[in-house]
Amino acid sequence: MKNTKKNIIPVIAVLVLIVIIILFMLLGRLIEKYTPSKEHQELSEYYGLASDDSVALIFNNEVLSVQGRLIDGNVYLDFKTVHDKINSRFFWDANENKLLYTTATDLISADAESTTYYVTKDARTLDHTIVKADASTAYIAIDFVKQYSDFDYTVYDQPNRVVLTNQWGDYNTAPVKKSTELRYQGGIKSPILADLAKGTVLTVLEPDETWTKVMTEDGIIGYVKTKALGSTSTATRTSGYTAEEFSHIKKDFSINLGWHQVTNSSANANIANVLSNTKGLNVISPTWFYLKDTNGGIGSLASSDYVNYCHQNNIEVWALVSNFGAKDQGLENPDTTQVLTYSSRRESLINNLISAAIQYKLDGINVDFESLDPSIGDSYIQFIRELSLKCANNGIVLSIDNYTPTSYTAFYNRSEQAVFADYVILMGYDEHYAGSEEAGSVASIGFVNQGVADTLQSVPADQLILGMPFYTRVWSETPVSDDGAAVSTTEDTSDSDTLYELDCYSAGMKEVQNLISTNGAVPVWSDTDGQYYVEYINGGVTYKIWVEDATSLEEKLKVMQSNQLAGGAFWKLGLEDPAVWDTIIKYIN
């Protein structure tokens, strides 16, 4: 019995020891769990700075993934950041290593690696390089960007960083009630980014019951315990930037413009006959100029006699320049990209246009550049900016033709066009076109209404001209068999499963009326389309026409009038029934 007790005592001692060890372990874990971490994260690591010349960018309370550079003690921002976040009016020509910026009156230019820049022709200098360029991008001196942009910035070191903002107005702040830590994430185990002294004022980004997301004045974003913050108050950030005022050449009359398609010089001699069929026309736009080569050369069909005759009849001439007119001259259309993406070629094109406008005493230039690649949207807009300066200097009206807005034409940047051009023309037609998957109207009233409403989101009404069609499309549905072979016209094709080959061609108003009369068709009014619809069968082929006439045109003119637009434009002269002018002059005086 005594031996048994002696054997139990060591066991109990071991068990007690084990319990004590477990208790100490649990206590250690509890202490570890609830003891705040004292680990500090290096700010260079926090910002992800890869080298000594890297500069972290904190823009509108967010650390950007892209970084700036510190070169010879000056901060530089990469072009994409400048363009996308600060000022989209900066333009970088990677082909000729040239930085451009367009103001209301001047073209600012700076070559890479130069301390000199030009305000039009006036040379100015900085004490450091304006643009640094490498194989992938350009870096612009931040103080140069600031000259033309509405933002504020402050540079800090250790590590290198810049705090930038272009958000003006009220924002929330809160002071630190007692010394605390700013941590990378919410939680006491998260690394410390900064030690905050009592009274430090923080920008409150995301308030929370336990951990609040904040930013320090010098651009460190993290979390503090909410109970360590004092009462939230409102601060106001104001801009000292004075925005430029852009002026436009505005006519004191509603625009009544007709496009006159001219494909050869001899057609100019017909101008008297063309005008005799119109009423109230006050602007004519002959299709005279087109890109001829990739160096900015233009082809011209211009005529002084034509201009003189129009002026004698109180009609202004806004000559059209296109990027597809060479085909009419038996030439290949040059690559528009090659013209617009090189500054020297854009300049040649602009100088050629202005020279022709002066030579022929033109009142305006109408730009009709279509089917552009989205990748050159910025280059196209830069062309418009640069052209606008020289047009304004010579008293020449600049108007720009545009598709109805869609997501895939957003790169035409209608809002920026409206800043620089005098008038923006909405081509309110080609709702359905050759190549459409189904037959339909060229310009239903719903399509026109929507196009105007969408364009007015970017363009002021007194700069917007509504383009309307003098033409429609005659659609044909020819029955075919499963293998694509034509079906005999004697076969019954009324079955809804019958396959059709869809085709169409453009036709003027008189031609359509002749087709309706010849085929004994009966037009039916469509409230949905705001026009008459005709359908008939000839030789087993079904023809469908959404008719453009004085009645459909009046519906579109009502849209123009109700939205108080600058006027109307019509494609194209010669396709109209002369009677439509009586309708037009009721709405355009």
Descriptive keywords:
589 residues; alpha/beta; SH3 type barrels; TIM Barrel; 3 domains; 7-stranded mixed β-sheet; elongated; GH; hydrolase; Cu_amine_oxidase-like_N; Glycosyl hydrolase family 18
Helix-strand blueprint:
Elements lengths: L1 H33 L8 H5 L6 E6 L8 E4 L2 E5 H8 L3 E4 L4 E5 L4 E5 L4 E4 L2 E4 L5 E3 L4 E4 H6 L4 E5 L4 E5 L3 E7 L4 E4 L8 E5 L4 E6 L4 E5 L5 E5 L7 E5 L17 E6 L10 H6 L6 E4 L2 E3 L6 E3 L3 H9 L3 E7 L13 H5 L2 H17 L4 E5 L8 H17 L3 E6 L11 H7 L2 E5 L17 H11 L8 E6 L1 E10 L18 E10 H10 L5 E3 L4 E8 L2 E6 L3 H13 L4 E5 L8 H8 L2
Parallel strand pairs: 1-12, 20-21, 20-34, 21-24, 22-24, 24-25, 25-26, 26-27, 27-28, 28-34
Antiparallel strand pairs: 1-2, 2-3, 3-10, 4-5, 5-6, 6-7, 7-8, 9-10, 11-12, 13-16, 13-19, 14-15, 16-17, 17-18, 22-23, 29-30, 29-33, 31-32, 32-33
Helix pairs in contact: 8-9, 11-13, 13-14
Task: Please characterize this protein's 3D structure.
The chain has 589 residues and is α/β, with parallel strands linked by helices. It folds into three domains: 45-164, Copper Amine Oxidase, Chain A, domain 1; 168-237, SH3 type barrels; 257-470 and 549-586, TIM Barrel (Alpha-Beta Barrel), CATH 3.20.20.80. Helices cover 26% and strands 30% of the residues. The chain has 14 helices and 34 strands. Strands 20-21-24-25-26-27-28-34 form an eight-stranded parallel β-barrel, surrounded by five helices. A seven-stranded mixed sheet has the order 9-10-3-2-1-12-11. A hairpin with a 6-residue loop joins strand 22 and strand 23. The longest helix is centred in the N-terminal third of the chain and has 33 residues, at 2-34. Residues 253-589 form the GH18 domain.
